[in-house]
Amino acid sequence: MADRQPIPDLQASLRLGREGVQFERALRIFAFLLREWQKHQACNGINAISFDKLVTFCSRFWSALFRKDGPSGLTLFSSHLGLEHDQDKLITFPIPLTEIPGMHGRGMAIVDGNRPPEFITSVLVKLQRERICPYFNISNSKQLEATELDPQASVGESERTNVEADVIYTDAQSFLHDFSRREYDAIVELGYALRTLPAEEMRAIGTHDTAKKAIEDIEREFRYMDKPRKELLQLVEADQDFKTVSNQLKRYTDEAVRKSSTNRQSYQKARQLVIEGLSSDKSKTIFNDLQSEACTIWECPDVIALAKKAMPADAFVAFIRTLANIKERFKNKSRITDGAKEELRLEAVACHSLGLQWLPSDVAQIFVGGEVAHFRGDFKERLRREIEKIV
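RESULT FIELD:
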């Protein structure tokens, strides 16, 4: 029997600039899935957050396929594949990325333990700049690397960044010609199943899979809130501008609400569409084992408790953000417009419905003499106590 041929150390291949065969194939899978999605949706790409979740779900699914149909007895990062295996019936390689927490939940990254993790979209930006493996076109990526690497960075940049599969092929077989038959069938089947998902549903199916992870991710959002919350306290106490920090805090409360409640409908819809799109019983079984039913995640008592914490926090931070906007807009003017007063009143009413009845809806009860330079003393004290309770 011929000597066994080693599979390269996947992470070492990337670090040392060697072939990275598995990484290139993983990128080709992602490009194919996105291209099929673009054709079905008749669009030119997807926002970076939803793309990140497409990659996360695909990697999760592929890893399950590898465990099920990979070479017998090999671990996820094993180094040998014997020639006695019929490779055409196997998933022959894993996705050489690691799932780790990020700003928008879990995402796939290169992790080697020697340097900060690099999330997939950040890696693709670098490859695009160097014109290496040009399967994607990423636009409006001015601050993308910071956004993906720093969990405290801006959400908005990722939402405005577009990722397009920049590949052209006449048929799937020509683009995936060097994959095993089992791999080819799995990729095409997955492409068909995912192509009908709207971007929001793609984001949901990649963000969630179990109640345990949902709890961890929501709790992490509350931990992220702590730094801007402390800064907000200081600025409010000093009667200084707090628009920037209130916007930052709102991003985290938005994510906490999204993960603890509002993602449920999108996830449930995505889960149903994928099940309907998968053609083989084996794939459906793997998918059902991977992706918990929506009721299992969002009817978990701990998730419900976190949602009850997140929703009033989000409404309260929205009220604070409106205050900050009013202070900025009218700091040099003699009076606040009726429109701004109504905006504040509506935010206060939303807070009242979630148990924060003490919040005033009348600017006369908030600002000294109706001017926006200073808060009334009694209001500032209650505001300070409520901010301390956010996390």
